[in-house]
Design brief:
Layout lengths: L2 H23 L8 H8 L13 H23 L7 H17 L1 H9 L10 H16 L11 H20 L5 H8 L3 H13 L8
Helix pairs in contact: 1-2, 1-3, 3-4, 3-6, 4-5, 4-6, 4-7, 6-7, 7-9
Length: 205
């Protein structure tokens, strides 16, 4: 099967998404042309429109694809053998690692607006991932009386996402990025979250 036949038998749809994601990584999405992609792939200018009605629909599909890939990356990296709090640390560090290795894609996933409001439950799925890890790894009876599980989940997610955004935008030094992903800086962040949601210790004289 030659390249043209391969693309006409289904590979074209996926290849177009790959091209859009490459354009995002290279910061050339605005200049991206479906017609030019078709030319480089050796297919007719009309062929891509059998799958996507226009560039906007193609970019929306690339958005959904990248979001699903990110969620799968986070889920696959979780190890059932990790003990309790280590699961949350692993989830957080993997979140930061993705942002570091795929900065343009990370920014795209969280800032691009789907004007048609096509819901892919993206934010709900991320929330649920943090919820599952926290609810199964921590004793919620030890949370402060005013702290619900819902609040604890949002607090953890927002802290991790905030650092991830700084990493993706290269707003912090490389040494700090490494410290959060591989070193003790993330442990400090985890400690801040734990102190914030946990009941204060009871001291005996």
């Amino acid at each position: 099967m030659n390249k043209k036949e391969k693309y006409h038998h289904g590979g074209l749809k996926n290849k177009l998404i790959e091209d859009v994601l490459l354009a995002i990584k290279n910061n050339t999405l605005e200049k991206y042309s479906i017609r030019e992609s078709a030319r480089l792939m050796g297919v007719s200018a009309a062929a891509p429109y059998n799958h996507y009605k226009d560039k906007k629909e193609l970019v929306d599909s690339a958005l959904l694809f990248s979001r699903k890939s990110f969620l799968k990356f986070l889920s696959d990296k979780l190890d059932d053998k990790d003990l309790h709090t280590q699961k949350l640390i692993s989830l957080g560090k993997n979140y930061l690692s993705f942002a570091d290795k795929n900065p343009k894609l990370f920014i795209f996933m969280f800032t691009f607006t789907n004007e048609d409001n096509v819901s892919d439950n993206y934010y709900i799925d991320i929330y649920n991932l943090f919820y599952e890890v926290i609810s199964t790894s921590f004793d919620t009876d030890n949370f402060r009386s005013r702290i619900s599980l819902n609040t604890a989940v949002y607090a953890a997610w927002s802290m991790v996402h905030g650092i991830a955004s700084l990493i993706a935008n290269r707003s912090i030094e490389k040494s700090e990025i490494k410290g959060y992903i591989e070193g003790k800086l993330f442990d400090e962040l985890s400690a801040i979250w734990a102190v914030g949601v946990s009941k204060p210790p009871k001291y005996r004289l």
